What does this fold into?
Amino acid sequence: MNSNSRTIEIFPITECKSHPSAMDLRDYERAKFELAEVLRSVDPVVKNQARETQDRLRELFVRLAEDRFNLVVVGRFSRGKTSLMNAILATDRLPTGIVPLTSVVTTVAYGSKEQVIINYHGNRFPSEIPVDDLPQFITQRHNPGNVRQVRVAEVKLPAEFLRRGFYFVDTPGLGSAIPENTRTTEEFLPEADAFVLVTSYESPLSEEESRIVRAAFSSGRRVFVVLNKHDIVTCDERRDVVGYLNEQLIELLGNGAPRVFSVSARDGIEAKRLRDAQRLAASGIEELEKELVRFLLAYKSAEFLLRMCDRVADMLHQLSHKVDVKRSLERIHSLSKRIVADTPGTTAGGEAPMPGSIAPGAMAQTVPCEICAQIVNASFEFLCRFQYELSVSLEAQTIHAQRGGLCPLHSWQYGSLASPHGICTGYPALLERLSAWFRNAAVSGRHSSSLSANIAALLPTHDRCPMCRLSADTETKAVSSIVDQLKIERDGTLNSLSAICLRHFRLLVAAVNDDAVIQGLLVREAAVLERIAEDMRRYATKHDAIRRGLATGEEMKAGHMAIAVLAGLRNVNMSRSLDQP
It folds into this structure.
């Protein structure tokens, strides 16, 4: 595995089709946030109630904060289970081609950065390792017989598919020479919300896989049967094998047998890397992803939300003798009705709702405004040179004094970087020039009404401050560069933009003459703002649940990110008045 590999960017911004009345993952999140708001509204009252009532409120917050959907991946080793997960997650970071694995379950959840936590049996503390070191803990070669006593390897990846609650659970391969592998997989079955059985065209549906399918199906949980490696067979062979597998499943499970998804995980990974929509569709990965999301919304999400509505309403009824909760109860009732009405059907003809109104590639982790960042970098480089020149050059000191120094903001930035010696050698000329002016004004004895204006003229302006001029030039060049990139490759540039602050977004839109590009910019900015708001609400819910440890890095930084988008990076826009362009 290439240690320099990274998360693969997906596709350009595009409107996603959905069932006209279907709840999408954003609606699901909003419903959770609304429940959290209702709980928050009664929190002041509950603080004065019995401990049991306080614990109940906290438990409801915990349920909202810990909502997760365990998608357990099972199958014989060498079927391509991990490759399939890599294809869905648009990454190449999960190690593949490793057989046989030890009896270790690997979970894959969302994280702001790549991270692996190794949990052990017994009382040993968990340890954090690099992703590249994962094989050292989960392979028979490096951990024979699981001598390290690893219980679960928790992998965190910044994969958009995982962001709203999916937890992939990669189980040891069935049918290996290591009996513990099959036993570990079967023992983990009760933790599953749904199963993905991965088999392949080489030998579809082994005896062990049949047993797992039967056990999962009889438990009432959904099973997704994935026939991997369809890139190694012809279309005719593909049709014959899929037909054979369907017959086997019907014979095994009856007419309610699950659908078979024919995919090529290898082609899916490559298609996402190349942003090839046609090849992605041909790989079968896209259709599988849509069905997974459809199932999450059609069953798990609605069921979870309705149960939560019932629990919250029950607590509100118990508090009704203490406080007027009529409005909150009405809100819960309205939300319940909306969930029932918006739960999508599962007919095969409808389009699957996808997470959000733009493609996952456009929802990559947000970073602060790139235009602000360029100004910060240019300013820092300028100050590094300037503070040195000002401390050693008489010419630089004279010019600095003549223009009245730097503006207030940049004076403080200079002061935070320069040494006391540098300030004491660079600034005396300016103070002496100002001193002479004030002395002459005092001696003249003519303290006219224009004195205040004359003093104001001494103060540095944006036009005279070299750092202000540099900031303005850098800003103009940064905006022009983005406009040029949008002309060359609109979709790729839109997907790669940062969380541009509102001031610079206004300048960017003003510099664009293409209505389609402006529309794309507006859609992108709306998605960024909504994503930050979601992260803020998630953090607040986890904080209320006293589960701040569950918060991702993005969620913990969401508040500062919101201010950065609204006001720009600190020390960039502070020097400009609101009416300046």
Residues 35-65+301-359 form one domain.
